[in-house]
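Homework help board

Subject: predicted structure for assignment chain

Our instructor gave us this sequence and asked us to write out the predicted structure in token form, then describe one feature. I got the tokens but I'm not sure how to describe them. Can anyone check?
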Amino acid sequence: MAGPGLQRRASRGASALLAAALLYAALGAVVRSEQQIPLSVVKLWASAFGGEIKSIAAKYSGSQLLQKKYKEYEKDVAIEEIDGLQLVKKLAKNMEEMFHKKSEAMRRLVEAAEEAHLKHEFDADLQPAIVNGVYWSESLNKVFVDNFDRDPSLIWQYFGSAKGFFRQYPGIKWEPDENGVIAFDCRNRKWYIQAATSPKDVVILVDVSGSMKGLRLTIAKQTVSSILDTLGDDDFFNIIAYNEELHYVEPCLNGTLVQADRTNKEHFREHLDKLFAKGIGMLDIALNEAFNILSDFNHTGQGSICSQAIMLITDGAVDTYDTIFAKYNWPERKVRIFTYLIGREAAFADNLKWMACANKGFFTQISTLADVQENVMEYLHVLSRPKVIDQEHDVVWTEAYIDSTLPQAQKLADDQGLVLMTTVAMPVFSKQNETRSKGILLGVVGTDVPVKELLKTIPKYKLGIHGYAFAITNNGYILTHPELRPLYEEGKKRRKPNYSSVDLSEVEWEDRDDVLRNAMVNRKTGKFSMEVKKTVDKGKRVLVMTNDYYYTDIKGTPFSLGVALSRGHGKYFFRGNVTIEEGLHDLEHPDVSLADEWSYCNTDLHPEHRHLSQLEAIKLYLKGKEPLLQCDKELIQEVLFDAVVSAPIEAYWTSLALNKSENSDKGVEVAFLGTRTGLSRINLFVGAEQLTNQDFLKAGDKENIFNADHFPLWYRRAAEQIPGSFVYSIPFSTGIVNKSNVVTASTSIQLLDERKSPVVAAVGIQMKLEFFQRKFWTASRQCASLDGKCSISCDDETVNCYLIDNNGFILVSEDYTQTGDFFGEVEGAVMNKLLTMGSFKRITLYDYQAMCRANKDSSDGASGLLDPYNAFLAAVKWIMTELVLFLVEFNLCSWWHSDMTAKAQKLKQTLEPCDTEYPAFVSERTIKETSGNIACEDCSKSFVIQQIPSSNLFMVVVDSSCLCESVTPITMAPIEIRYNESLKCERLKAQKIRRRPESCHGFHPEENARECGGAPSLQARRLLTLLPLFLMLFSR
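My token output:
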């Protein structure tokens, strides 16, 4: 029988055994949580998959055959380094000639119009008087036709009359809007205003005294808005509201003017809604401030340095303020005064008219919202007088814009999508001696030049795979650039509000000091280099490269041209040589196509050629059947060379397709190639109806075909891959969820085994995603153990296996729904560790053309009255107020107005322009494999990453037993850059370097300033306004 001591020893022994067991169990748990994934096994899987998939890609693409064929011609080709400066000068000369042809066509129209008007005998019996203009302008029809015969690329020409009618060629049926109205007025189009007037500095004074309450203030706001519509990028402005005090509509811009670009004008419009009427109007204070601003700003040299004007919007003035005008403006009268009397009362009309007439301006009265547009336009005719008297027919070119108001523009949009264009315009003057001092503007002639026409003059094959041409205006705004994105919500043709004033610095944002931009704005010729980060594939991927920029001006226009060439293969071009007979034979192959948006032959010059495709035109040109065809001989020679060298691949693909033992599961569906000359060949290994991706390489698949802006995506990405290796990717969909079911693989073909060798072609295949993934899972089940028992497998529940590309996107995952997702969103802890270790690097990108969701107050006091229905109700309420003999300006009208326009204060979501910052990720090429452990809150997570040989892919095996949920996922979602009020103010004040238009016609000593407006019969106007409304009311 054991004693107590023995029992205690036994008890202590049992406790020790239990503690040891618990410790062993705990250590086991830790070991399991730190499961080490064998690097050698993952390397075996990666090697097996890499070998298998490269074999498939090389075999079905024919890459080795094509590389061999180009090598055979290596000794017979000449490699040249592209002279960027010579290239940009040549392109600028070509554009100059094209622009000159357009402006000469307009000059012929101007001469014909002025001659016809001079010979026309005015017939007073023709009513309305506008009919006289319609008659004499008929003579333009012959010139329209003659211009078109000389230059068939003039898609349409037009004459906009100062009287309001619009003559165009070719004629087209105008369709009314949903209200049955054709509301187009050529006189408020930017091309008309820009041609008719000179650049101007404008201060707008708005009376917000108590008498302006209600409808008057609404009309005043709309008048200001309409004036803003007439201001363009070469103009400067500010708006000051006044009562006993001055209230800058934007307080940040106290004492200065800002450029009248779209962004600034919209900013001021938003602030207009905050104005309210109270107190007494002290116009003398406002006039003093306006004159001082114009004088001070003029001395800075920043404004238009041309015309200056003060726009006064008020319901009356108790004085003529001649002492102020004598102090600041007489006798030169360099600042014109335009006065707008709001309301029906004429008590103060004489004072306001005197102010306008004494300062070379114009007076007008605005009683209703319907009067606003026509009355605002009057000031433009006054500003045009000096130009007319000088008889200076300045040629003006607008910034790039999308016009969907003209019927012909709508038709072009239906055919090609919304089209960016620039307009060349010239003013038309009266040459009658008896009206010379009046400076009568007859109208403006113009024609539109689609930006695509400019791109046709650019030989894309000379710019290389990543190269591009771009042009900007004298204000630094983009005329054409491959990164310009004027639309949003893809497929809906919605224009961004500020699409026409995107600055070069917003797309070439790496140039923080605006060196390139400023040199181009100043019309210099030179070179600039910098490292750039170019996004591709819907902005999700980034290519980091060094660009050399070459730039010069386009004479006779306000534009400057630039060319960007990427360093390395992008700076070299090679010339091959084959006979025409050889090339023609191989061009006849049915699998050959050419880039439709490249200009091999000019098929626009003669109407009989317009139906021809570029390939058809080349064949006719080479056979000598169309002597009138003008073609690029150098480009066609290289097309023939590429056709001959690549011809054998057609037979190779055909043999593969006919071999029933090959591709039995039809995993590979398409093989394709493209060359530096825009030549493409395509082969289908399955029937067209069986293709998984029906859109691939079709006209709508812009990213993957040659177009005017860029080479195909698969070509561009392959060119940056190590020669001989393939780049694999899945296409990104435009929807929120990306679920692609194909994989594209491509590789580049080079002449020489060095960086200076031009990339002459790229080939590739597209295969089913399911086929690709099956190959991956098969490879991941291999192991090197002799007994066939693998220490680890992707089938194990303890690990997750992924296949990701060099930008971190998942191609293969056990969870199929993760296909196409960014790896950092799925395995945030692992991606974070890879970034820390340097296996991947984060690149910060900026988007200055983004659209962000914003909450906006849906209540808008002014917008209610701008609606036709609400405007009608407002007019009826005004009539009733008049009938009961209350004052229009007092409480009753204000009460009726506020009752109608008051809306529930609620927020609505809108898309508005914004700046965003977002990341992209790129793998480090020098790191082939790595492993690591991540310390999490209660476990350690291990992983292995191994590069797939001859590819841009990586296999990642991750310990799944440790969730590591404390680490937040890494996303690629853009973050809006928010500016505080101080920074917003600085951005508003900041003015980038710009170049003023060369001509200015602010004044002329012979100008007749006596025609300065007047108030029509107020009683007559009142009766005309009341009559239709009473008829409408009492007919119901």
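Reply (TA_rk): Your tokens look well-formed. For the description, you could write something like this. The chain has five domains: 51-82+573-777, 85-176+370-449, 199-367, 458-570, 797-853+913-970. That's the kind of observation they're looking for.
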